[in-house]
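step=encode ok
step=design start
structure_in=
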């Protein structure tokens, strides 16, 4: 009996000291799809890419861990809003009018410039109106699809960037609307000679966030927001941005 009592005392003291000295390990859920350059799947429970590295580094600073929930993009958005554990966060989510009221926008991570990609020799698309009579490929459930839909343009969706690359090369679509960095990286990964590809002016500069449902406790949201904002002041954050954008250029 005495041994059991002593063991219970040790457990209580250990838990107390962990909280007292800030060593308690907290855990959240991150949901996303494996996006080129933004949220690359390093393993079942480890995320890379620009957004993934920013969040991983920020969480490490405050002794937080995370579980990954890899899902198709539309399902990831639904899972984040369902928020069954009251600690599910989604990234990289573009902040726009359609989504504004649905989420608690935790922290801005970076901006993505969007453009229309075409085969070399085709007229550049420098604004949405110029794509009116063209068939444009776009990622299903993405902010890019929302933009084309609101502009009442003709488009067809694909669940993978790789599919849009193939459609463009095979001339099954006239253009592909996406962010410049993902587009350039996708062409390189699929061994497409960039001399055969052209793109127009920037259509939009989308603000990329990590977000959560409004049912997530505000204390948790504040903790993550403060950690990310603090990390964004660091040289490591600046280096991540520089390296990611540089690696996606021609």
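sequence_out=
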């Amino acid at each position: 009996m005495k041994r059991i009592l002593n063991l219970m005392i040790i457990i209580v003291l250990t838990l107390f000291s962990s909280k007292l000295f800030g060593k308690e390990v907290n855990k959240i859920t991150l949901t996303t799809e494996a996006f080129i350059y933004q949220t690359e799947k390093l393993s079942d429970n480890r995320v890379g890419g620009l957004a993934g590295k920013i969040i991983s580094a920020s969480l490490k600073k405050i002794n937080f861990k995370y579980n990954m929930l890899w899902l198709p993009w539309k399902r990831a958005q639904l899972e984040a809003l369902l928020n069954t554990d009251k600690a599910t966060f989604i990234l990289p989510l573009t902040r726009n009018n359609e989504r504004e009221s649905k989420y608690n926008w935790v922290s801005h991570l970076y901006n993505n410039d969007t453009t229309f990609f075409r085969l070399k020799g085709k007229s550049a698309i420098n604004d949405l109106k110029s794509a009116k009579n063209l068939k444009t490929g776009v990622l299903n459930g993405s902010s890019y699809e929302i933009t084309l839909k609101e502009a009442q343009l003709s488009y067809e969706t694909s669940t993978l960037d790789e599919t849009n690359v193939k459609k463009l090369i095979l001339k099954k679509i006239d253009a592909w609307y996406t962010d410049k960095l993902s587009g350039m990286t996708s062409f390189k990964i699929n061994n497409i000679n960039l001399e055969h590809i052209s793109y127009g002016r920037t259509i939009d500069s989308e603000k990329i966030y990590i977000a959560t449902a409004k049912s997530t406790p505000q204390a948790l949201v504040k903790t993550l927001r403060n950690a990310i904002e603090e990390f964004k002041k660091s040289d490591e954050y600046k280096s991540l941005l520089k390296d990611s954008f540089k690696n996606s250029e021609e």
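step=design ok
step=annotate ok -> The radius of gyration is 21 Å.
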